Amino acid sequence: MTFPVTFLSFLLPVVAGALWVPSFLPGGNGTVADRGFRISLGAGVGLGAGSLAYFFLRSASAEVSAARLFLFEAVLFSSLATLAMRYAKEMSLEASPEPDAKAITVPRWVPGTLAALLIFLVAGVILTEVFLTFDRPHGGWDAWAIWNLRARFLFRGGEYWRDAFSPLLSEIHPDYPLLLPGLVARGWTYLGRDAVSFPAAVAVFYTLSTIGMLASSLAILRGSSQGILAGVVLACTPVFLVHGASQYADVPFGYYLLATFSLLHLSKSSGSRRAVSLAGFTAGLACWTKNEGVILLGALAAVWLVCALVSSVRKDEIRRAGWFVLGALPPLLALAYLKFALAPPGDMTTEFEVAAVLKRVAEPARYLEVGRAVIREAIFQLHLPLLAGYLLFMGVSIRKGERGAVLRLWGSLSLILAAYLSVYVITSKPLAWHLGTSLSRLMTQLFPSLLFSFFLTATAVTVPAADPRRGRTTPESGRGRKSPMKRRGGG
Amino acid sequence: MQSAAGYRISAGILFLVLTSAYFFLPFFRAEWISFDRRRDLPAADRMTLYEARYDEVRKHLPSHGVIGYVSDPKENNEDRFAWAFTQYALSPLLVVDRSVNPKGREYPIVIGNFHRAVPGDDRMRDLSLVRDFGNGVFLLRKVAK
Question: What does A313-367 look like in DSSP terms, one character per residue?
Fold first, then answer.
């Protein structure tokens, strides 16, 4: 009975998410990439909404039964899906402009072979995740000591579920956000017991959705070969797979990071304010997943501010920022309730002493130690020199109209990385221990978005598709046909 | 495809795919072998076994609230592992380690989790044995002064 109930508990939010997404990303072109993007994005959006819905119901009532939860979700999700579908139908399509960046053509069999390889690899990834889960069914230390423990409080606690935020649990971070615990507790409510298999299924789901979203978003933007190559690199990164199966919140956080960046990038080229608000929602879900979400918001705000200052369309930038904030509101309101009404202050704030921090900032040895650890991680775990080697073969080529957007992407990622590294420099915890227990996870969070930025920057690989009017080649998917984002009215 | 550029591009794609596979395949093989070996083992994983130690004592504990926790000293990080896993196993009870948080000494019901011998030191002060559940799990009670 566990498998069908687990499947059905995923099905409701995933289907709802997949139905909502088209109203934010109008005008799909029907390609595999387009459908893949909508499904992989809709899955995460739906699951995030499922976590929020569970938290809302948990906060509003003492007892959360499976029947009550189902009724609440069915009414909420179906009414939102109906609204979304109605809006999606009202939109019409418009052909997108031709790409104006250098693209390298390859024979038609190349994308087909790469696609077959990716399918083979995804099967390998699923098996690997099963093997890793079999080894540690409860997940890694943080999985059971933080995330699944809090899911148990939410599920088992009844009217005392707020004990999950007791200061007596300060050692295991009662202030951490609740996307993952909420999602797991929601699944357990449907199952009627706290099955170990459910958080493992959530972990595998996010791992696969991240690979799917990376490959499909790049396939839309740069052609299927480019998307598949990115998917192959991510699927072949052992550290990503290990963290994926560990049931930690880092891979889900990386998923929402990637969703935010890809939506912002897609919306930039079409001017769709709905896509911007969906990007806001995924950024909000990133905040609802991990405290690092605040760093994401800070980085985006800083880059937005610079763009608004130097941009000739300042009003447009401010309007886009407004839509982004509007989209982020539902998860941010839930987070604000958690942080200000339920949870005690986090250890980063309680252990913050200005004098001690200033002393650490002035120690060059700490920068060296952090720098060495980052380089080690980049070379030996994320294999970044491979990407540098690939770039030597392919060269750099960014579409003219997207140069600003790609630069913003790199700028935001650099700011997030800089913020992560600054935390290590000022940390009151033993530096070697702090780096050893978290750097790998933090860099894994950024890795899918880094690959997204990298493959937008590297020269795209496309297959020849003769255009009889011009006698030139066009990319095989995405922008060469109908833009998935473009629509009349721009919003 | 142009000849020189074509070779360069093919080499670039091949380089990326092969080097990626070079990292994935040995990792996949190692996990497969490890999985295959474990399949023959009759016992459940370490965490499941550890959690099963608390099955009996759980019936004698309140359904919610706070209890104290006492354990024997262990090496490396095993102390924290033992406490954190006890907290995980007994949630939604709040389990407060008396050796870390002085507030833990205020609670009348105390769970003992010992892996070697029951320590005779300060850790056991004010505590009386209620029941030994075997496997190093004890139900203790704070002695009223």
Answer: -HHHHHHHHHHHHHHHHHHHHHHHHIIIIISPPPHHHHT--HHHHHHHHT-HHHH
Cβ within 8 Å, pair A124-B24: yes
Tokens of A350: 């309680």
Residues belonging to chain B with any Cβ–Cβ distance to chain A shorter than 8 Å = 1, 5-6, 8-13, 15-17, 19-21, 23-24, 27-28, 31-32, 34-35, 38, 45, 47-48, 63-66, 80-81, 84-85, 87-88, 91-92, 94, 96, 100-101, 103
Structural domain containing residue B10:
1-42
Given a contact cutoff of 8 angstroms between Cβ atoms, the answer to whether B28 and A124 are in contact is: yes
What pLDDT shows up at residue A270? 58
Asked if residue B39 has pLDDT above 80, the reply is no
**Same structural domain, B72 and B23:** no
pLDDT category, A386, cuts 50, 70, 90?
Answer: very high
- Tell me what ipTM this predicted complex has: 0.91
The predicted pLDDT at position A108 comes to 77
* Same domain for B52 and B32: no
Determine the pLDDT at residue A267.
85
For chain A, the straight-line distance linking the first and the last C-alpha, in angstroms and rounded, comes to 45
* Closest to A185 (Cα-Cα) out of A217, A144, A156, A223: A156
Query: Is A145 at the interface with chain B, CB within 8 A?
Result: yes
Count up the domains in chain B and report the number: 2
DSSP run (H or E) holding B138: strand B137-142
Residue A32 inside a domain? The answer is no
